[in-house]
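Sequence design from tokenized structure. All designs in this work follow the same two-part layout: the structure record, then the generated sequence. An example of the structure record is given first.
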């Protein structure tokens, strides 16, 4: 299993970013996928999940601002982040079963 996140960066408050998670080494289409994040000196926090049919669930802290989607043909999951806040600053990870990507840094700062 390999999970590779990309798309992180620095953005001003109120801005947007789209993260990608490219998956390989397993059958992506039926897989339940997750996004997590970890801020400095904090525990890893669940952001949201997406089922194989595209239905997604979100943490209350991001609901209405973040959208998870997937492209099964490309074995890729996405996290569209809008209306970003400084408290969204973290390393974002994608996760499948017990496997994790290396993470991508998102920094929200003016």
């Amino acid at each position: 299993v390999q999970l590779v996140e990309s798309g992180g960066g620095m953005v001003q408050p109120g801005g947007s970013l789209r993260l990608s998670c490219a998956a390989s080494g397993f059958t992506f289409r039926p897989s339940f996928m997750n996004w997590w994040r970890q801020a400095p000196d904090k525990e890893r926090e669940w952001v949201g999940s997406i089922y194989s049919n595209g239905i997604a669930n979100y943490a209350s802290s991001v609901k209405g601002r973040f959208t998870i989607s997937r492209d099964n043909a490309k074995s890729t999951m996405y996290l569209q982040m809008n209306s970003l806040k400084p408290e969204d600053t973290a390393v974002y990870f994608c996760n499948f079963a017990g496997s994790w990507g290396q993470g991508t840094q998102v920094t929200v700062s003016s």
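The CA atoms of residues 58 and 106 lie 18 Å apart. We note this feature because it recurs in several other targets discussed in the main text.
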